[in-house]
Amino acid sequence: MKKVFLSYMVLIIPFFGFTQKLKEIDSTAVYILDQMSELIGDLNSVKFSTTTSFDKLNDEGNIVTQYSTSEVSMVGPNKLLAKTKSDKGGHGYWYNGEYLSYYSYAENNYLILETPDNIISMVDDMHTRFDFKFPAIDFFYPSFTDDIIESFDSIQYLGKRTVEEEECYQIMAINNEMHVQLWVSEDRNFLPKKMKIIYKNQNNIQYTTTFTSWELNPQIPEAIFEFLPPPNAKLISILEK
């Protein structure tokens, strides 16, 4: 990663404009976020898993919670593999520095797109053109702390909490549209453990992700970032949004 292993704020930053309100920024919270971002930015490679629940409004306007799990492997600056299993079958992304392959497990079809030559540009490009979302990419953006400060009116350190038998620092960030809570591991690595987002203007629907199985600087074979279509899989095309 080495500061060239970059990404895009998919979940938090794009959905609202910045305000000119007087901000309440807790220096302890900022320090914890900076430590987390610094460690992540210094990594050469990483593997982790996520478990996610997210609310959707059905046709009757009722909240329905859906679930997914993801496994992510990255090597900076230009390799990414993300496989997600969900209620709808799931999908995967394979990025080798030149092309991004997307595969739908439920439909057994795939597409291959030419991309920029690094993770940040690829994720930005794919999100802008096709609304692709990559699991937990937010935390790998190098200006994560600055973006949070700019985008939220209040950032507070709430103290230590135990999350799945692990001591964590709890941070809360609030603006007119979102209420975000983040739990960061208390150990020397300051890794994200859990994040919850409440969308205040969307019936208070929630998005929650828990992180597990972190591996820092593992040796990852480059072959896993090459996509091989399964038997009978169909190559498809996609329109830009």
Question: How would you characterize this protein structure?
Answer:
The chain is mostly beta strands. It has a single domain (22-227), classed as Lipoprotein localisation LolA/LolB/LppX (outer membrane lipoprotein receptor (LolB), chain A), CATH 2.50.20.10. It contains three helices and 13 strands. The protein has a 13-stranded mixed β-sheet with strand order 1-8-9-10-11-12-2-3-4-5-6-7-13, covered by helices on one side. Strand 2 (45-57) and strand 3 (63-75) form a beta hairpin. The protein is globular, with a radius of gyration of 18 Å. It starts with 23 loop residues before the first strand and ends in a 6-residue tail after the last strand.
Question: How is this fold's topology laid out?
Answer:
Layout lengths: L23 E2 L1 H15 L3 E13 L5 E13 L3 E8 L4 E5 L3 E6 L4 E6 L4 H12 L13 H8 L2 E10 L2 E9 L3 E8 L6 E8 L5 E12 L17 E2 L6
Parallel strand pairs: 1-8, 7-13
Antiparallel strand pairs: 2-3, 2-12, 3-4, 4-5, 5-6, 6-7, 8-9, 9-10, 10-11, 11-12
Residues in helix, %: 10-25%
How many E-type strands? Answer: 13
Count of alpha/pi helices: 3
CATH topology: outer membrane lipoprotein receptor (LolB), chain A
| Strand ordering within the main sheet | 1-8-9-10-11-12-2-3-4-5-6-7-13
CATH architectural category: Clam
Strand content: 35-45%
- Alpha carbon gyration radius: 18 Å
Terminal Cα span: 30 Å
Q: Tell the overall outline.
A: globular
Order of helices and strands: EHEEEEEEHHEEEEEE
For the residues shown, what is the average pLDDT? 90
Tell me about the biggest sheet?
A: 13 strands, mixed
- The class by helix and strand makeup works out as mainly beta
Q: CATH homologous superfamily? A: Lipoprotein localisation LolA/LolB/LppX
- Give the total of domains: 1
Q: Which CATH top level class fits?
A: Mainly Beta
Pfam families: DUF2092 (PF09865)
Organism: Paucihalobacter ruber
Protein name: DUF2092 domain-containing protein
Keywords: Signal
